[in-house]
Amino acid sequence: MNKEQYHVGRPRSEQARNAILNAADDLLVEVGYAAMTMKGISERAGVSRQTVYRWWSHKAEILFEASASDAEEELAISPTGAPLDDLAAYLEALVRFLAHSPAGAAYRALLGEAQHDSAVAKLLSTKDPLGDSARVVIKRALGIDTLPIPLDQATALLIGPIFFWILSGRDSTKLLPRQLAEDFIHNLQTQ
Fold first, then answer.
1. In which element (H, E) is residue 46 found?
2. Is residue 45 within 8 Å of 20, Cβ to Cβ?
3. pTM here?
4. Do 155 and 138 contact (CB within 8 A), yes or no?
5. Residue-range definition of the domain harbouring residue 29
6. Sign of torsion, CA 23 32 158 169?
7. Cα separation of 191 and 189, whole Å?
8. Which of 18, 78, 164, 166 is most buried, with most CB under 10 Å away?
9. pLDDT one-digit tens code per residue, 134-187
10. Quick one: 86 and 102 in the same domain?
């Protein structure tokens, strides 16, 4: 069961929820993860702290919900029927998400925080928005039955190079998504 199913009392206002999620994204970009507070999020969203704490117990939970939700939208691509084109389009979306999107910035901040905060690490283990989106694209583009390796391993091979490149602070404009997609297909064929 997710947190929504445990909630008792007044239903969550979708308008307040969206304001809180947007406020968290904005504050992350403006002040960074360390300086962001629940008080600041509530003030920016125009809601009481009680409202924020009714649904989330920590700023990491807000950021994770915001980034995971945005990742689903930002990493969804329309299938073309051409595997290489679909994989390249997905990798382009992944670069945009991780390097340029406020939601991607939130996800990167959470990954950094998870390295020394076990509660954030546990939170991140509950959902894998990057892996989930990559699995959909791989299944649709290549089919699961034709993969020479397990799907999770293929997912890591697809997103790993971009993930490492961006999280290690390298220039995202030097990434070539189409070439990475070609390399991915070639590597699968040689397994």
1. none
2. yes
3. 0.85
4. yes
5. 3-59
6. positive
7. 6
8. 166
9. 999 999 999 988 899 999 999 999 999 999 999 999 999 999 999 999 999 999
10. yes
End position of a domain, from candidates 59, 86, 103 = 59
Please give the Cα distance from 149 to 152 (Å, whole number).
8
DSSP string, 91-153: HHHHHHHHHH-HHHHHHHHHHHHHTT-HHHHHHHTT--HHHHHHHHHHHHHH-GGG-SS-HHH
Q: For residue 41, give the CATH number of its domain.
A: 1.10.10.60
Query: % helix / strand / coil in the chain, to the nearest 5?
Result: 75, 0, 25
What integer pLDDT is reported at residue 1 of this predicted model?
40
Q: Read off the pLDDT of residues 18-64 as tens digits, 9 standing for 90 and up.
A: 999 999 989 998 999 999 999 999 999 999 999 999 999 999 999 99
Count the helices and strands in the chain (H runs, E runs): 11, 0
